[in-house]
Amino acid sequence: MEEGLTSDEPDLEEDLDPRPPVVTIMGHVDHGKTSLLDAIRKENVVEGEAGGITQHIGAYQVASPSGDMITFIDTPGHAAFTSMRARGAKVTDIVVLVVAADDGVMPQTIEAIQHAKAAGVPLILAINKIDKPDANPQRVRTELLQHDIQVESMGGETLEFEVSAKTGDGLPDLLEGLQLQAEIMNLRANEKRDGEGTVIEAKLDRGRGPVATVLVQRGTLFTGDIVVAGAEWGRVRALIDDQGENIQYAGPSVPVEVLGFNGTPDAGDRVVVVPSEARAREVTEYRARTKRERQNARTGGANRSLVDMMRDLKEGAGRKELPVLIKGDVQGSVEAISGALEKIGNDEVSARILLAGVGGITESDVTLAQASKAFVIGFNVRAHKEAREAAERAGVEIRYYNIIYDLVDDIKATLSGMLSPTLREERLGEAFIQEIFEVSKVGKVAGCRVSDGVVERGAHVRLIRDSVVIHEGKLKTLKRFKDDAKEVTSGQDCGMAFENFENMRAGDIIECYRVEEIRRTL
Ligand code: GDP
């Protein structure tokens, strides 16, 4: 069915031309990823040109000082980068690692390094906020050594640039560096063939219908082409570039908004041009079917038999699930969130994604959440008024986020709360029974001597006879002579009675211990 859809036939050497590098900016939160993307973009807009309209389409191109183009992907964070990669989409050629000079290497800096390494993508360092009085770029360089990043000025291979997104200092050098790195990588593509690319972002636009930002990676995409992306297809009605201009075609490394899809494809979907509508239908119908089947397998489907459910319950005995619904503003974030949530569980607890989709939170989302005792996550979207009211009536919780990491941390904390605590035993002491008394109203009492440590009232005890544990429980009473005692120490005699147990004998050993509950986290 999919055969011959993408041509894996390599391009001829003479057909290959240099193409712009595709760059993703990664780094710790607040280190200036967004500011840097904005600054680079602003720097490039010729003043007065088109009123400086900057349109967010998920990616844009700028010219480096030498005039060659560079494409920047403008997606929300590492999770998006990784979820695209998890789907087999490789779009990034170079990662710019942003580290704030006044803050140094932080957890997400390390995470970014790991992501880039895992993807085999070279990294360029941008030490940002160099304008700040407490900026310490040298510290950044040294700290990075621990993470296997050796910058040029320290004898390594990683290009490094001191920049300020605020003042614009160093930005031209950074762009030049990217250009240099691209030349080293000898990035080339054949533009004289049918267009192929990857969906970076997709959304349902009120006025324009499904809108997908596509990064063209090979060939040239033209208006009028019939394209397939994942389970969706369409005839390209319009191509709109990052300046908001209509264009007729887009070549390698060019990001464009594609209008004309019949449905909203997913971020990471491969886009290919097909020869006819019939072929497009055939491919997408097949894919839609397999996608549905996959989803049913994951969510359990609506029409599973009782037997299936019973079996799942049995197999999943002990495994607790946190059902969630995810609604987000763009497909990229929704994918990223789903991917991240699917990863944070373990054998005992996990998040179960009932639905993940693009758009505001609707009444039907709330109904589904209510039925499954789930809560709803709104990422950069809000609930419609009716949905809000329905949620209040039904007691369905809606949590809003605008930062993926906050969301993931929060769910992690919730899941951690569902983990049963670890019990740790702390040995207190030991006593042995000398004789057994019968006390009216109390029942049997063991006359003991503490041989080691202490014995405490209310503590846990274990009764050991001939090296075999014959009872485990709690101490009901602890007496020293006639009086209640809180604790009795080594060498002293005492009387003990147990909760729900009377079958003790002279010669038994009593082990006394405390149990501490330790909360676990994921
Ligand atoms: P992100 O979370 O990595 O996208 O970081 P942002 O771009 O949102 O920046 C976080 C904060 O740092 C914002 O308040 C920015 O104004 C500030 N910031 C970013 N770059 C610079 C810089 O070069 N110099 C100074 N002084 N502040 C900056």
TrEMBL record:
One GO MF term: translation initiation factor activity
The keyword Magnesium belongs to this UniProt entry's keyword annotation: no
Entry-linked CDD domains: IF2_eIF5B, IF2_mtIF2_II, mtIF2_IVc
Annotated residues for binding of GTP: 27-34, 74-78, 128-131
Family label: Belongs to the TRAFAC class translation factor GTPase superfamily. Classic translation factor GTPase family. IF-2 subfamily.
SUPFAM superfamilies with a match to the protein in the record: Initiation factor IF2/eIF5b, domain 3, P-loop containing nucleoside triphosphate hydrolases, Translation proteins
PANTHER family: TR-TYPE G DOMAIN-CONTAINING PROTEIN, TRANSLATION INITIATION FACTOR IF-2-RELATED
Location of the Tr-type G domain: 18-188
Alphabetical keyword list: Cytoplasm, GTP-binding, Initiation factor, Nucleotide-binding, Protein biosynthesis
Protein name: Translation initiation factor IF-2
Keyword Transport carried by entry: no
Function field: One of the essential components for the initiation of protein synthesis. Protects formylmethionyl-tRNA from spontaneous hydrolysis and promotes its binding to the 30S ribosomal subunits. Also involved in the hydrolysis of GTP during the formation of the 70S ribosomal complex.
Gene transcribed to yield this protein: infB
Cell compartments where the protein resides: Cytoplasm
